[in-house]
Structure formats: structure tokens, C-alpha cells
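Quick illustration, no need to memorize.
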Amino acid sequence: MNAVHMDYTPGYVIINIYINEFGGEMKGNERFYILAIGFIAFMILTTGCHKKAVTKPDGYSEEQVELGMALVEEWKCSYCHTPEIAGPEGTLIPDPDRLFSGHPEDEEIPPIPDMVITSPEYLEFLDNLDTTVWATDNRIVFTANLTPDDETGIGTWTEDTFIATIRSGQHQGVGKRIKYPMPWQELAELDDQELAAVYAYLRTVKPVSNKVPESIVLFR
């Protein structure tokens, strides 16, 4: 039997089975196709396993986390709370490394033009802003870090604190008001179980250290 380098990647496993069962050498092109098929099979299997894996924080079920994820997707929370990066063909996509981390602390604050806020020019200006920043007639607002980072996100928040924030429209239920365009009034219509599910899902997101700047009041 011919000696074959032992490698446990899928392609080489198939090659070794082939040689052990049927004997003989493989031609170069046969070896190439077997390796390619093995690699593709490996990627499909591992990708499928990754998609099925659900990380759940202590005290919560997979069903709660999945419900929270569905609600977050339904409310398009990522659109405002996740910075964008250039994707295929130059299109902007959510940055997978900074999911729900809010406005980047190191991003330059855009200058606000002095124009009527209902004018087409101002609306065009708003449309060209990053999705993590919003400008009204008298302030610039930056979206919050919703990741479970203890220092800059909501890592130290309890479920009760999170629900109180949404119910009251105030930071941690007692602090500063939540700024427009955060639709907290609409989110407050969710029941406690649904809000708890959203909280549970956000606990599964990768913590990102990102200190979002305070909103800026404009004087005109």
C-alpha cells in the first residue's frame, strides 16, 4: 500500500478511504477534486451547526432568546444601533464586529448645516448621515451601545432596569430622557415577557467597548 500523508481534513479523509478500500494511486486532478468536495462539505456542515447554535444567558431559555432576536429584527434595532461598513459592490452593511454597539466613539461628528429642517436640502443631509447619528432642529443625537459591555454598554443592567427604561423613556428608568428618534413609546406597548426576551437576546451579543458621545445641543 502506498504511504499517504495523514491529514484529518475532510478531503484527505476521503482520499485515505479511497486508497485503503480500492488501492492504487490517485491522479493529480482526482486528488484536487476530492479535496475540493471535502472542503465544500466541511463548510456546509460547520456553517449549519453554527446557525443552529444558540447562546443563552443564565436564567433564560433558548425560546426566550429566539423571541428576543425576532423582536429585535422586527423593530430593525440594528439599523440605528450598528455602525455600517462597505460591503460587496460598495453597498453599506451592518458591521458584524460591532453589532448594537452604537455610534462609534472615534467617528468625526458631522457639521450641521444652518437651514430649515423641513427643507428638501435638510432632509437630504439627514439621509446622508450615518445611521447611528440623527440631527433634529436643535441637537445631534447618537444611538446607544446596547451590548453587554459593563463600562460602556448595558452589561450592568438588570432585566428590571431594561424594562423600566423602555416603559418610562428614561435612562435606567430614572435618569435622562431617551432622545428622538428612539421609538420607546411604541416599544413600551410590548408586554413584560417580550421586553424580557429582548433583554435576554441582547445579553448574547458580543460586548463591545465603545463610549458613545453625549447628544450635542445646537445654538442657532
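The longest helix spans residues 28-52.
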